[in-house]
Fold each of these.
Amino acid sequence: MPKKRTVDVVILGSGPAGLQAAIHAARKKAATLMLGRLKESSLYWAHVENYCCMFKVSGEEILRTGRAQAQGFGAEILDQDVLSVSPAPGGRFDLALEDGEIITAKSLVIATGTARNKLGVPGEKELLGRGVSYCVECDAGFHKGGRVAVVGDGSAAAGGALFLTRFAATVHLVCNDLEVSGALEKKIRDSAVILHRKAKVLEIVGPDRVEALVLDNGPRLEVSGVFIELGAKGVLELAAGLGVALDQDMKYIVTDKRQATNVPGVFAAGDVCGPPLQMAKAVGEGCVAGIEAAARAKAL
């Protein structure tokens, strides 16, 4: 049986919005859990010189300081990604983590950012929407009984491949190396997923729709769908599972002034809410989201 526990606030995302939400939720004495790896934040690789009262400083330094602050106020931080999020009784949310643990949250803050990493190979752009997808939960149903491939090294790719086994007859997972927990890697090995390690995609083939995937280590995979999952779960996947409303372009989460979404108990902050994609905006929204999420959790 998987380990289960309940916390007040779960924050998805390890960037400035998520960290600020964790700091404020924890300061409100809410049991706070933040999920996400340090390097998944785009800020990690940047230098900041336009943030008030701060001269040029590395994003890595900012994130490490923020983590220490959040933990100092009592927040728990796990370097894991969430594999799935679903509504639970009593206005709560169940989250399945990489290591198999199930977390029930009274409030949820989505601060995952918006960047969707791309492969940058021939056929990717041309066949987008015609077999190429960046959202497993959105498009899995189009491949019932078919042959598909998932590309990526992390938990989103591994979890997506496992999810696709419910629909597709054949599921390939193409990766350089699986950078996931031991428990999740075991699930992959024990499943019907065909694992291709030390492999790189050279081309996605098809004149009108995806027909095959060409790898650098020899095999040509005959598939009708390619799911590119080069990071943690993004806004489309999370929104699809919870019914969170997106803007008309299906890119950003819609929130009110309390950073609340249309789903009670779900808040959002940072780049996931739209431009300007700046740390100052992310921190401000994270502050509001953390305070509101803690208040909602305490009220349940």
Note: The chain has a mean pLDDT of 92.
Amino acid sequence: MTPDTKARGYFARRSRLKWWEGLPWVLAVAAFFVLPDYMAFGTQVLITIIFALSLDLVVGFAGVVTLGHAAYFGVGAYTTGMVSAHLGWTEPISALLLAGFVAAIVGFISGAVLLRYHGLTLLMLTLATAICLQEFANVNEDVTGGFDGLTGVGFEPLLGLFEYDLWGHTYYWYSMAVLFLVFVVVRIMVNSPFGMSLIGIRENSARMDAIGTPVYRRLVTVYGVSAGIAGLAGGLFAESNAYVTLDVLSFARSGTILIILILGGVGRLYGAFAGAVAYLVLEDELAKMSPEFWEFGVGLLLVLTVMFARGGLLGIFDRLRKLFDRAAP
């Protein structure tokens, strides 16, 4: 068997759908019928998963750690909000696509500068990028609403047919459709030769550069794509909440989405699903029990995950599967 044939076989096996990959989607559909009164919360969970997927591309597959990914989430949110509030653009799908496009452009431009640096310098520069954008939005309050937030955001019925109800049913299906399309694109990307090269760059960028891989160009490319997906999440957030505040650009949002990814499992795609559901449900329940000290419970879960489940929540299932495989005759 030639090396080329082996490589083709490996890519085919890696990209092949597994039976369990349908479970998250079945559960998402079932949640609509089992918990119809919680669809507004469910919409925020789906938006968070999209945001976490965008971060997983750069952190989990390319190995670029960032503390400022909320910058692109915020760019998407403000783009959608401002075209509605100031330009009267009320068609939701085109506004969402514009949000992703603008965030991607910002991601490509900023990535071309930021990714020339590495390590702690890169980490601080990504954080500074988000802080600068937040302060820019705060100062230009005539356009962004500043500290008080951007109001007057509203959109016509989805596809001209589906009204937005009080319980968030329409936005739930809308967000799920966007998540599905984003996930398909991301899954194809990470299982392609391009995705394999990103993993190689993550593991040993010097060796990948030595064999002729355009390391810098590929990092900028994936960073821009990741920013565009984050912008889609931000645009959905603005549409579903009908307002935008400075919080969409905050360090807290960047830190939270990184925590979610670590909880679920970095570089696993479905880690974004597990982490978002676990974090947001735990946050909601703990906040009901103790509005003042709920963060202690989340912090404790993160510490336990880092100490005993290095691969995140999905890593626990991997270990259990291996134990069963060893026990099997």
Note: The radius of gyration is 20 Å.
Amino acid sequence: MKELSKIYSAVAPSATMAVDAKYKQMKADGLPVVGFGAGEPDFDTPDYIKAAGIAAIENGQTKYTPAAGTNAVRQAVAYRIKEDTGVDFDWTNIVVSSGAKACLYTAFTVLLNPGDEVIIPAPYWVSFTEQIKMAGGVPVVLETGEEQRFKITAEQLAAAVTEKTKAIVLNNPSNPTGMIYGREELAAIADVCVKNDLYIVADEIYCKLVYDGFEFTSVASLGEEVKKRCILINGASKSYAMTGWRCGYAACGDKKVARTMANVLSHSIGGIGTMNQAAMTAALRGPQDSVEAMRKVFEERRNYMVSRMNAMDGVSCLMPNGAFYVMMNISRLIGRTLGGRVINSADDFAMAFLESGLVAVVSCDSFGISNFIRWTYASSMESIKEGMDRLEKFLQS
């Protein structure tokens, strides 16, 4: 047999999906495991959204749509962006696809030529680096740490720019850290992007999940020169508990980018289910009470998890401002034996904790940082309490 594509053969598996798959298999085998791996809200999709999808099916909305999405859903996206961030996007500059992940990949495919560099702050979501490589680009990772709350500075960005730099990925609020860039921080970073003519791939999928009264700022709101360089990525998965519906979108400041993305989709993924688009339209235009209700529950869970974690010997964490993740620092555990395994890395901890403690968490080694574990509080309070109890017991093993 002839060899497969060198580019795609080099793609690393998703760490989060691998952990979730093993957790689900263990659960199916009857083991009493609890999972904190995949970032998937445990809430059901709100009834009014489900009703819109069902009605679309019953009304015969089961045919092909344009690859970029129906006019109705693209107009709904523009409406929601305006309502939430104050930014006006021409609805024809909006492209809908099967989840934010597909929109990101399509954006990188459109932006990059072989050898183009894309700057990514670390810790980063695992798919950013792989998608950039798949599109022929070169990921350039900027490291951060707890001392700077896992956020890059404008000075760091400016120092990393070369003649090959094409774009920066800005995930705000961040997966896996839950940290948020404030308006002044964003403005300084955006200024560097404008001066160096960089595209900004702004993953804002968690923008409605912010806490402590923090006011979210979309980078696209910082002026026309910034907006025209933005490809704003978002979707219905996190805020509306619609992960399985696969509804994501890209709002492009440049019409040429939007048109090219639509062309790529027309020859690859195609449009998402017509009924799914109807459901997303309802989500974006309908009442937002359910979003706020879920946000409040997430905030309560976050407070409990952080409080319990920081009361334990050997681990610690910062208080995240958004999303639904906590980064647990395990530096003090390196070299110790837990669950019958010597802990030399976050990977070792995650495996020992799953096998011995029956808790699935994600090592952040694949997120571009060592000695950290990502927990999600997109799980029931009952599961979180059980997870914290098991962590406490495991650390004493």
Note: The mean pLDDT is 96.
Amino acid sequence: MTAVRPLERLRAFAGCVRGGLATTFAIAFPVLAFGLGISIDYANLLKSKALLQQAADSAALASARELRVGSTSDTVIANVASNVALAGLSAAPFAGTAVVSASILGAGSAVRVTLGADIKSLMGGLLVPETKHVTVNATARMMGGAPICVIALDPSANKALNLDKNARLTGVNCAVYSDSTHTNGIGTKDSAIVTAALICSSGGVQNSSNGMTPAPQTDCPAIPDPLAARSGPTVGGCNQTGLVISSGTQSLNPGVYCGGLRVTGGAVVNLNPGTFIIKDGQLTVDNNSTLTGTDVGFYFTGAGASLNFAGGANTISLSAPVSGLLAGLLFFEDRSVAAGQTHVILSDNARTLLGTIYLPRGKLRVAGNTPVADQSAYTVVVADMIELSEGPNLVLNSNYGSTNVPVPAGVGPGAVALQQ
């Protein structure tokens, strides 16, 4: 009998192993491919469903705001919901299959939106059904009780709404909210006081027993930015660059003020109605100067664009536009600017700030020794963060019927929120 050499034995074994591996892989490949296909399609399905839910949420909020109009019909609500939802899905590959329906609930107090679409398999239907119909729902309800006059939007900041050093926030007929889920979403210290019809924090509060009336509610649902759908003005070329007015009395026209605008040296500036775009600089009033205007709105855009009403006897008296793109918006910060810009109101004579202060990327800091905005028919503040210190009293009136300056949808009376 011929002996089998060791090398030949090794080659024979390797051939058997290769053959076994090939057979195993051939058997396992369809299973692996099927699993991979399932994973890819599942991830696509989750992403698509999230897009649908976001569009449905926006549609529900927008259509619920229409409930503020007493004569709103089912047809109007359905049209608003459809327009908003389809606009939100315009870039989605399944947009053409989307179907929207909306219904009024609770005797005209809420709207329910149903949004469905056909989601195609990315694997072409080889491993899973070629299309799957996905349906989501969203319900938005008009908020009863007190109108909203303050929202601190930051979702996680320590003391997104913060008061110290004898500061006061007074909104006896309106609601104050912080969206921060931090354990100190709202903070008061050093004899600071918040007085409102409702105080609500998505997280916790600091020093609630001493500085807040009524007792604050915690773990409240966050209120999405109610002004997120408002569009800013088109920013054209510069009408003025680095303008400084340091004496006398002047009137200024709306336009683009590049490098900011400074009123100083005791000058008195009266603003003609319209939109003042403050680009790449500050709107500053200092050194005992005066800035007045009715039917005016300010839009802050570019690097360093901010509000600076300096301390001292500077007189500020401003009312927001009654119509147009910035209707009801006194100050509007461009959402594309860098986060964290601080806007300050330190003046001891800023008694009229009629309208809504909207700073979605920045912090509003109010400090001084006298009441602020107390002579306004109403004032609403929506900002990323809000800080009061050094003894001011920011007064948030809610006399909406005594002015022709409209209250932006989503704040003031008849505000709406997604139902949890």
Note: The chain has two domains: 12-142, 148-418.
